[in-house]
Amino acid sequence: MMPPHGPLRAHRPLGNVRQDERTHPMKEEIKPCAVPRAINWNRLHDEKDLEVWNRLTVNFWLPEKVPLSNDIQSWATLKPEEQQLTIRVFTGLTLLDTIQNAVGAPAMMPDAITPHEEAVLTNIAFMEAVHARSYSSIFSTLCSTKEVDEAFRWSEENPHLQAKARAILQTYAPGANPLKRKIASVFLESFLFYSGFYLPMYWSSRAKLTNTADLIRLIIRDEAVHGYYIGYKFQRAMERLSEAERAELKDYAFGLLFELYEIESRYTEELYDPLGLTEEVKVFLHYNANKALQNLGFESLFPAEAAEVNPAILAALSPDSENHDFFSGSGSSYVIGRAVATEDEDWDF
Amino acid sequence: MGGLVFYSSSSGNTARFVERLGCDAVRIPISMKAEIPPVPDTFVLICPTFADGEGRGAVPKQVIRFLNAPERRAGLRGVIATGNRNFGTTYALAGRVIAAKCNIPLLYSFELAGTETDLARVKNGLDAFWETPCLTT
Ligand SMILES: Cc1cc2nc3c(=O)[nH]c(=O)nc-3n(C[C@H](O)[C@H](O)[C@H](O)COP(=O)(O)O)c2cc1C
Ligand SMILES: [Fe+2]
Ligand SMILES: [Fe+2]
Question: What residues of chain A lie within 8 A of the CB of B107, using their CB?
């Protein structure tokens, strides 16, 4: 919907003076004399902003909601090296959430096109803080302080973890291209987390740490909306560019994905070789890399055969949503009648 | 001979899938005010999921508007649902809701814009379902 008075530019979000523009103040539209405007949620420029805001706000949760202490017994059944791996993986995830909370989401705010987008980004930023905080809740419930301190030290020294953090932080730096920033952000949200998310899904598929897995699934659901939304805004911005500019950004995206994939592969080998899980985790990486590209509106990179994830892991991601494949006659029956929670308001029949 | 109808919001995943499928298909408009184009006598619907956390609102309001017309609903023979597994228990929920509501089979589910495997399965599945290859003009 077009706003009633003038172009979007007149509605630039309040905080919308980009670092890169501050250093090139000749751009007309960024003169700080623009009227400070209150956000009006009854005048949308992009319906997606409200749709995503609504989903994010109903999704809101805190780690206290999950009975993590029910996992104490299960934790005790893990071997010491399995416990250490789990703590390290969660520390790596904490680092990514910390980056997205403190740098990533705030760095995208000056690039926002609508005031509502700015508001959505503040929600994203805050939830990243909740995610980062919730790993510490897991730690304080299950682990000793010494083990946890050791893992945080490890995260500062691990070259692969540090390399991926740096690669992303570079694109968030002031003056960086706003669309490259979105590309990196979608890769963080929809790809980089998954070498870590694999492990709690794996434990859950073996009926271990199931409450921890419930918490991780809440994080995964949030990241799905984040990756979707940032990717969506990227696609909108791409539409306004020339063919040549679009091609340049697409090259950049695939190049960055290759770079990150290399780092992720090393990281995965180092973490998962001892358990013999590396190959399976890499398949999961391919699958998620393809999904990250789709969020950006691009085609997949890895062939379908290289991205066929172990069904037990898929089932751990989406429990109770059995795979329907009426076409090939496999999967559970297509018969309907399964009660689902829906409201009937808008249906006439 | 059955046709194909789909909804895709402005993120365009479903539209990209249908484009690669290469079959003639009718797109349900995003605007609630836009006129709905004529649809084939019988058809399969491809529909993405947009639920809230509890599963409410899984079927987009544009698709509900489309199905609320009895003459269009009468032609619906099956539904293919899309979504993202990362939404957990509400993955591709729109398909289960429509199948139950309209008493038609849920044929298939896939994620986002689909993989090559999804594309092949849906293509072959639809050809077998209608017992004839899809139309391309
Ligand atoms: C606000 C919002 C809520 C969503 N909820 C679900 C959901 O509950 N289950 C699911 O499987 N996918 C869900 N999705 C993912 C979409 O179904 C998926 O991205 C789909 O490919 C969108 O299709 P389109 O791009 O053609 O509109 C949601 C997406 C958004 C933006
Ligand atoms: Fe997060
Ligand atoms: Fe996120």
Answer: 324, 326-327, 334
